[in-house]
Amino acid sequence: MTTRSYERVERTVATINDVLNVINVLTWDARVHMPAAGAGARAEQLATLTTIAKGHLTNPALAADVARAQTELGADATLVQRRTLAAVREAVSHHERIPDDLTERLARAKGTAQQAWVEARRDDDFGTFAPHLARMLDLKREVASYTAPDRPVYDALLHEYEPGMTASALRTLFERLKATLGPLVAAIAETGAPRAEVLRQQFDVSRQRAFALGIAERFGYDLRRGRLDEAPHPFEISFSTNDVRITTRYDPAFLGQSVFATWHEAGHGIYEQYADPAYARSALSSDLIGLYAVSGTSYGTHESQSRLWENLVGRSRAFWDVHYGELVYAFPGQLQDVDVETFYRAINTVTPSPIRVEADEVTYHLHVILRFELEVALLDGSLGVDDLPGAWDEAMQATLGLRPRNDREGVLQDIHWSAGLVGAFPTYTIGTVMASQFFAAALRNAPGIQSDLARGEYSSLLGWLREHVYRHARLHGADELLRNATGSDLDPSAFLEYVTNKYGALYDV
Amino acid sequence: MTTRSYERVERTVATINDVLNVINVLTWDARVHMPAAGAGARAEQLATLTTIAKGHLTNPALAADVARAQTELGADATLVQRRTLAAVREAVSHHERIPDDLTERLARAKGTAQQAWVEARRDDDFGTFAPHLARMLDLKREVASYTAPDRPVYDALLHEYEPGMTASALRTLFERLKATLGPLVAAIAETGAPRAEVLRQQFDVSRQRAFALGIAERFGYDLRRGRLDEAPHPFEISFSTNDVRITTRYDPAFLGQSVFATWHEAGHGIYEQYADPAYARSALSSDLIGLYAVSGTSYGTHESQSRLWENLVGRSRAFWDVHYGELVYAFPGQLQDVDVETFYRAINTVTPSPIRVEADEVTYHLHVILRFELEVALLDGSLGVDDLPGAWDEAMQATLGLRPRNDREGVLQDIHWSAGLVGAFPTYTIGTVMASQFFAAALRNAPGIQSDLARGEYSSLLGWLREHVYRHARLHGADELLRNATGSDLDPSAFLEYVTNKYGALYDV
């Protein structure tokens, strides 16, 4: 059943969802095509649309309709209705609590902090960025004081990206990861230098594109409802389930860049493309707290699908046993004398390096944990902003055994903090952990998948993920989705088993 | 001076202008990049933004502020303030008069009529389009009955594209044009077949692009604030004066396509790029009646600039005397044995043909006049929709001496009517007439321009147009702008002198 007030809620959410999808179009265009001179007007347009979306959300008529619909539907409410009303109610409360002037100060601080970060990174000068970071942390603390005055600051911020997750749960998770990954990295380091030279040759960019995109399509990324463009920082973004775009970047002298970035983004894209079309323009395809149109149910869940297709499938031996011939066919001059074993080792080299985005499957999470620990310390005041570069370098030394040569390849490497993304890094590792859980459950529950993968047939894996993950969009929170699909809560066992087995075999450790 | 209520008007208009510019981004993306499957969601997004823009415009608070500002500013109002208040007041009154359900019915009819037109044209079946056209004409009549109940229907519709213009003024203009162009076309037809074979060879598309764009930049189109993409139907669209995009299409077997389309759209783009930046986000860069973000002051004025750069400059003998060598350098195999005189004649062939968009500078206007006369007859009821194809073919025979082979190359060739653009065709000819007036005034007032053009130097012409046309954006209506710049009202003398001299010499008639 439905009621007039519930229908009014649906209509308002549809308007908000349209506006959020339009914001995504503006974002895509700004990153892919916009001439630099257009940035000023684009910022105004984005601010105007955000104000419009927020205005619809905090209009008292919406809150009144939500309350009325709740009473009218009562126990007859369907799961979709309950989840819709809960999501709208929570978002209304979140946005109502934040004073308008704080929203404005935060928006302005993001603009100036990102600019300051770009310049500080260029000049390798943390000092000019420090006051902006301090200000951003103050503002994020202030936001948390309004949105969740009863919760620790870190938990309040984390909640925007990974609802329900807490710093204390993360600490437990990260301790388990460190206990295995630390020794594994150390053991691998002792086996000698990795061999990835085969990836560092000249590879024609249009052939890189054709190969990477052809595989992405076989995974399930539907080009009739998407497109692949080039962008300096690869990303995925959707304007509806029928228009989900991905981007990649090409390095003509390195094969390891475009191919894996394409599959990573295609994994994100597949999640969006296979959300139930019935949820179009609804709260189940809108992050109403983050004011972002997306069908994935949390940052971590989204990342689980990009990592699943990129790593668990795209960096597996089974995958390359099937597809390596196609790659050699595309690049005979570069690869005809390289056997699949050598290539497989090259794309799975493990090396401590200072840069997170270039890190391998094993060391990557040590980068995330380092950031998490520093974020927590910055927010609770036990670490001052001025002491951050030193703390960063020491943590690097302690976890990865190296010191950044400068702040540019150290504390200044990521855009996140300057963009107001404080508490978001852990979702990368959460996603990786989830990816292994989903993948293991799929193989366990549908035994045909393994043999299908071994012959380059991806539809059974895609089918399982559609059924258990993609179609639900935001109907379930990440916890519930994971439990329904895998029978477990977030648990690093599957991931640790995967890396231990895979890299143990590869490096004989 | 300013007042609080005037500032509130400015802020509301800034919001509306942002939304209209965002609609332009969505339109550009839909025509250039969007996968076809994205069309459904995009239509919803466009409808939502249009509703939002209209909602801001018809909010009673805006009308109240306009009235208050008018009283407060009184005789102290600047020209900008007066024009702003007048434009907002007229738009509010326009949109308030149209009932919401009519807006919705019209929007829906546009969607279905365009689809029906696409199919009818594909199948060469006017019968399936006829009821949609009849319905569209009814709806446009209904709109006119609300927006201008005291004016003839055609004048009310025309006013949306060319404010102040009337059917009766057009009839006078068109009679003068016909009296010269008809005999000129007939005389040219007797001189024998045109010679344009040199354009019909294989021309590498990337070289076409480089040549066309290089010239557009020399005209003044600023690529730092724009970009050129490919689209099946070339168009120009702007998101701010700092982001003005143009598109073209390429025919590898015909040089006459991409080059002139690029300069045509660059002419539109130059108009937008050189509007006074002080008018950004204001009523002076918004068509608040058409709900379209644009700095050009009318459809005709805009078209005057595309035609000026494409034809008066780009198809002139002076231009090719300077630049033909560059073209031969780009296409030596195709053109090294073709002299500039032969090439100049090829790009200026005059031939009656059934298709408007392929027509030359002389016959083009006979296509427009034919459409105008049929539109008037359809709207006043003297011509029924079912009799339209016959009337079309007869008019073609009478004015151009040919009969379309079918409705696809006859009455079904243009998208305009199905898109609700009834009364818009005349602006193409108005623009052409204005172009010759502006160009003649520039040469008359700034004698250095002629010799600059003769050596491929366009900055003095651009400078004159910036000063007298572009910078003003929508501060003056088309009439006033034309009078200020040229000293005359709309007058076809300059255009008729131009075509008579140019084509008289070319064809010796």
Summarize the structure in words.
2 copies of one chain form a homodimer. The first copy, chain A, is mainly alpha-helical and 509 residues long. The first copy, chain A, has 2 domains: 4-97; 168-507, Neurolysin, domain 3 (Orthogonal Bundle). Helices cover 63% and strands 4% of the residues of chain A. The first copy, chain A, has 21 helices and 5 strands. In chain A, a hairpin with a 4-residue loop joins strand 4 (286-287) and strand 5 (292-293). Chains A and B meet through helix 1 and helix 2 of A and helix 1 and helix 2 of B.
Question: Keywords for this structure?
Answer:
3-stranded mixed sheet; 2 domains; Neurolysin, domain 3; two-stranded antiparallel ribbon; mainly alpha; 509 residues
User: Biggest sheet of chain A, open or closed, and with what strands and sense?
Assistant: 3 strands, mixed
Uncertain residue ranges of chain A: none
Beta-strand share of residues of chain A: under 5%
Order of strands, main sheet of chain A, comes to 1-3-2
How many domain regions of chain A? 2
What is the CA-based Rg of chain A, rounded? 23 Å
Count every beta strand of chain A, where a strand is a DSSP E run of 2 or more residues: 5
CATH architecture of the largest domain in chain A: Orthogonal Bundle
Classify the oligomer: homodimer
Q: How far do the termini of chain A sit from each other?
A: 60 Å
Which percent bin holds the helix content of chain A? 55-70%
- CATH topology of the largest domain in chain A: the name is Neurolysin, domain 3
Please report the number of helical segments of chain A: 21
Taken in chain order, the helices and strands of chain A follow as HHHHHHHHHEEEHEEHHHHHHHHHHH
In the CATH scheme, the class of the largest domain in chain A would be Mainly Alpha
Which secondary-structure class do the elements of chain A indicate? mainly alpha
Looking at the structure, what is the overall shape of chain A? globular
Q: For the residues shown, what is the average pLDDT of chain A?
A: 96
Largest interface: A-B, 35 and 35 residues
